[in-house]
Amino acid sequence: MQNSTKFENPDAIDAVITWVDGQDPKHSEKLNRYLTSIGRRPPSAHSTRFNEAGEFIYCIASILRFAPWIRKIFIVTDEQTPDFMSLIEKSSFANRVLIIDHKVIFKGYESNLPTFNSLSIESLLWRIPDLSERYIYLNDDYLFIRPVKAESFFIDNKIVVRGKWETQQSERWYNSLYHLVKKEKNRVKNRIAQALSAKITGYSKKYFRVPHNPHPQFKSLQSDFFSNNEDLLTSNIKYPLRSEEQYVPTALTNHLAFKNKRAIIDNRYKTIRLKLNKLTYRHLKIKLFFADRDKNTAFTCLQSLDMANDKVKQETLHWLERRIGSLESVMGEISNNY
């Protein structure tokens, strides 16, 4: 198994983002070929999970503007390149924003490709060449909307986690009864996957639940764990689409960090989660109003922007432009300051 735990600068912090353009014909062909082979389209293959509606460029711009201490930004994708890379490659940021293909991190496990499963991909992010020991993982719909410090994610060789301890689902008799009555045993839920991650690391009674957040990670915790438990790695990356049998790799790292006394809980910074396909224009404006004024709201998660009505979509993009700025303007400002 590839093991890449060495890094040049122990103080470096990288960002890793998984990205896909679901409207790319080549990607659509791969996905449709797989769906045809299984004869159905499960909820985990809904188009909104793969579509991108202009928000990703603001994700990159937000990191450059509000977390300038990030050393490198790695974009992990499947034979795709965001359009804005042509702009970056002509700038001084060419060595800071890099594309990593699935084939790189799946080296030795190519039989599991193609994959359309973020949990499978997240299981192998620690194999990115030149990845720093400390890194922050984000989905492509996640953005920073305020300046944040490195200490907001790592303090004294510990990760800063946001969330709370909860009782394992299996320990709740009413939860088991509810699922029995509702016949939802096979429904894929993030909470259940996080709870499974805790069980793997020895937490049988409780688990630390993290809502939508940036995820600070230690590469060595992951590489060391999987070097000793390769069966748990191979079992998690074999699913082309999300499965209820999978655990959450970021949650696994969190629990390993707790077990090694390398985690600190700090819930001061918050995320505003926008389910844009379900928001009215008025409701969106209210949410954005409070996000602008609450200094502890440092992040936003934009869900299903591709399915939002035109008015909501345009207001969201206008807000991102005001809040973050265009990638070109952000790069220009940063370059002028040095």
UniProtKB/TrEMBL annotation:
What family, per the record? Belongs to the stealth family.
What InterPro entries does the record point to?
Stealth, Stealth_CR1, Stealth_CR2
Q: Tell me the keywords, alphabetical order.
A: Exopolysaccharide synthesis, Transferase
Q: Which parts of the sequence belong to the Stealth protein CR1 conserved region domain?
A: 13-37
UniProt-recorded name of the protein: Stealth protein CR1, conserved region 1
The species this protein belongs to is Alkalitalea saponilacus
Give every Stealth protein CR2 conserved region domain span: 49-158
Q: Name one GO biological process term.
A: polysaccharide biosynthetic process
Query: What are the protein's GO molecular function terms?
Result: transferase activity, transferring phosphorus-containing groups
Which Pfam family, any one of them, does this sequence belong to? Stealth_CR1
